[in-house]
Amino acid sequence: MQQQPVEVKNLLKNGDFEAGFDQRGAALEWEPFRNDGFQAIYANETFPYIESGSNAQRVTIVGATQYSRYAGIYQQVEVVPGQVYTLTLHGQIRSVVGDVNQSSFGYRMQYAISQTGLKNWANVPEAEWVELPWDEQPINASVTKFYSYTTTIEPAAARITLFVRGWNKWPDQSEGQYTFDSFSLVGPSTAPAPVQTSAGEAGTSGATSSSATPTSGDAMIDKGLPTTGTGDAPHLMQDGRFWGGLLILLLLATGAVYRARWGY
After folding, report:
1. What does residue 38 show for φ and ψ, rounded to 5 degrees?
2. Cβ-contact 42, 50 below 8 angstroms
3. Considering only CA atoms, which of 111, 113, 115, 121 is closest in space to residue 149?
4. Is pLDDT at 230 greater than 50 in this prediction?
């Protein structure tokens, strides 16, 4: 069995949010989602609320009149089932009060991985959402902290979906700002390709065996050269050409004797 090296890279497209934003304010390669009962604003984040580079995704929830209002983004990813991937997220939460004790942890951030590649966030079981241990900070603070979260996952299918969302817990109409930046899902990008070995057995390399195989399907066997000089030509006495030639010679000889005797 041969093993082809597999490229390990960040499989999230525009995971650093540097590739631009669409007319909705959502980062390219990402899709927005939300429930109702509030205003959701998607925008390109501005300095100083950026973890790295020049851009980040901001999601704002404002005017919530019901419990548990959500807004976020998601992306489907092609993976190799059974392989281990490292998920890294960076982000921060900002609120008017800017203190978890005053808001009773009212502004939180969550993520979920759909192992079946769901697109509808509402179909992801509530138990599969993971609350990130990131506390809110004051809106418009001159200095803010970015939090980081890392975990590993082992996909069960060839396509999974990453959902990340802001969560306003209480029916509080004040503004909650959620900034996402520097997302990555690092692991093998493709499955090893099968290979034919010299015995015809399936391997895992992209190369093929150089052994030649007869196109007829017969085995290649070394054979000796054919024997010549015996058994290949007909017997001399059985060849009509021999007797015809002998008769001509006899006639020529008889004519020569006759001319010599009679003086011709």
Report:
1. -170, 175
2. no
3. 111
4. no
Report CA torsion sign: 40, 110, 152, 87.
Answer: positive
**Buried-exposed string 224-243: b where 16+ CB fall within 10 A, e elsewhere:** eeeeeeeeeeeeeeeeeeee
158 closest CA partner among 116, 221, 111: 116
Q: Helix, strand or coil for residue 250?
A: helix
Strand 85-95 and strand 136-138: pairing?
parallel
Grade residue 252 by pLDDT with cuts at 50, 70 and 90: low
Kindly list the structural domains of the chain, giving each domain's residue range(s) and its CATH number in brackets, ordered by start. Answer: 8-188 (2.60.120.260)
What pTM was computed for the model?
0.72
Q: Please name the residue that has the structure tokens 């960040």.
A: 10
Which tokens in the block code for residue 129? Answer: 């959402």
**Contact between residue 31 and residue 217 where contact means Cβ atoms under 8 Å apart:** no
Give the mean pLDDT of 16-22: 98
- Which band of pLDDT confidence, cut at 50, 70 and 90, is reported for residue 239? low
Q: Predicted confidence band at 238 (pLDDT cuts at 50, 70, 90)?
A: low
CB within 8 A of 264, min separation 6: which ones? 258
> Mean pLDDT, the chain, as a whole number?
83
pLDDT score of 161 = 99
Q: Which of 193, 133, 125, 209 is nearest to 163 (CA)?
A: 125
Degrees, nearest 5: CA angle 92-94-96: 170
Q: Is 50 exceeded by the pLDDT of residue 127? A: yes
